[in-house]
From TrEMBL:
<feature type="domain" description="Lipid/polyisoprenoid-binding YceI-like">
    <location>
        <begin position="24"/>
        <end position="197"/>
    </location>
</feature>
<keyword id="KW-0732">Signal</keyword>
<feature type="signal peptide">
    <location>
        <begin position="1"/>
        <end position="19"/>
    </location>
</feature>
<dbReference type="InterPro" id="IPR007372">
    <property type="entry name" value="Lipid/polyisoprenoid-bd_YceI"/>
</dbReference>
<protein>
    <submittedName>
        <fullName>Polyisoprenoid-binding protein YceI</fullName>
    </submittedName>
</protein>
<dbReference type="Pfam" id="PF04264">
    <property type="entry name" value="YceI"/>
</dbReference>
<dbReference type="InterPro" id="IPR036761">
    <property type="entry name" value="TTHA0802/YceI-like_sf"/>
</dbReference>
Length: 211
């Protein structure tokens, strides 16, 4: 009798959980831009490298009009040093190095992920929110936080992050056996802009839809 009662209670709980999820609304990211920076130990403009990486997919989940979380998949095979249109020989070499097993090993780990877990509003700050989430790179997951300007209207979401740092060694992004690694700072910076609508290139606000 006790087992039957326990089973019935479990069924009720599961029905309640899945019943909540049925009402969730999922909104896809349609506009994104991700930039990265890496530095030599002597951090100057000539010793700083930067580039881009592309978002493969992204979505936000809502319960009615309340944002619950976000899931984002980054295409690590798209990582590039320098400008997208640049054919500079050094940048091509660096791009290939970043994709190799020396760094991100994109053949083995083609995707990185970020799971947004919560957004806490900030007052009297350059950025209006603190974003919390879990980032997974090369199979290693770490919880991170960073400042951002977040704008949510109905089911439209715009997030513009500050430039924030990750420790590459936390994710095993380093030369396995080379003195070269000692000349590279462990700090790597990331900054991104994502939106559920197309963004205006100049002011980064959603483009108004034509009526």
């Amino acid at each position: 009798m006790k087992r039957l009662l326990l089973f019935a209670m479990m069924c009720v709980c599961m029905s309640f959980v899945f019943g909540q999820k049925k009402g969730d609304k999922v909104v896809k990211v349609t506009s994104s831009e991700i930039r990265w920076w890496g530095y030599k130990v002597v951090k100057t403009v000539p010793t700083t490298h930067s580039g881009t990486v592309k978002l493969k997919s992204g979505k936000f989940t809502f319960d009615k009009t309340v944002l619950i979380d976000g899931e984002f998949v980054i295409d690590m095979k798209s990582i590039m040093a320098g400008d997208v249109s640049s054919q500079d020989e050094d940048m091509v070499k660096l791009t290939n190095d970043l994709k190799s097993s020396n760094f991100f090993d994109v053949k083995k780990f083609p995707l990185a992920k970020f799971h947004l877990t919560k957004i806490i509003p900030l007052a009297n700050s350059e950025y209006n929110s603190t974003v919390y989430g879990d980032v997974t790179i090369k199979g290693v997951r770490k919880t991170i936080t960073f400042p951002a300007n977040v704008y949510i209207t109905q089911f439209t979401v715009v997030i513009e992050s500050a430039k924030f740092s990750l420790n590459r060694r936390d994710f095993k992004v380093f030369y396995q056996s080379s003195l070269k690694d000692y000349f590279i700072k462990n700090e790597m910076d990331i900054q991104f802009k994502i939106s559920t609508e197309k963004l205006d290139n100049e002011n980064r606000t959603p483009v108004k839809k034509k009526k």
